[in-house]
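We now fix the convention by which a protein and its fold are recorded. Think of the row as the fold of the chain written in a discrete alphabet. Here is one such record, which you should read through line by line.
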Amino acid sequence: MPETDVLVLRPASGPRRQVLTIAAVISVVLVIGGVMAGGRPALVTGIGLAALLALAVAVYLWRSRIVVTPAEISVRGLWFHRRRDRADAASAIRATVVQPMAAPSETIVVLDPGRRALLRINAALYSPADVDRLMDHLELPVAGSDGPVTAAQFAREQPGASSWIERHMLAFILLCALGFAVLALVLGTVIAALSD
């Protein structure tokens, strides 16, 4: 296989910096919350959660990539590695999806010949130039909306292209916050019990 037939995209420095900045702010808030809650168990819990978050973000940025070979299209993130046969790709949709309380992010959906979603790529971590290189490399007919669309609109226009998380971002954020609070409470209780 010629080396030029392989395209590997990694997160761009701008989006990577933005993710690291957000993780740093959240980590500082966790440590400050631990200090303000008082006591060593709360402080250790805050520091532990901040370290866990920092580790998860570092692994996410290190693992994230898009790889296109003559045989397959592969997208890797923190928890997933999606691989699809390139021969099954017939067309693509490129849209800017707007989330509540978040910056718009570019989304690419690779479709099969029956216009069903084959692979969804969140291009928020990649530079516009890299996304253009990806689209040129795929050599697929590309459609898209005239302007930014919400996740719900995108889901209506292209069923299966938008995940539950994207369509219900606020509910997902609240569920994550609740899970994180429960984790902090449990961890703090365990640390308090062990330190007595």
User: Anything to note?
Assistant: DSSP finds six helices and nine strands in the chain. Helices lie at 13-37, 40-63, 128-138, 151-157, 164-167, 169-195.
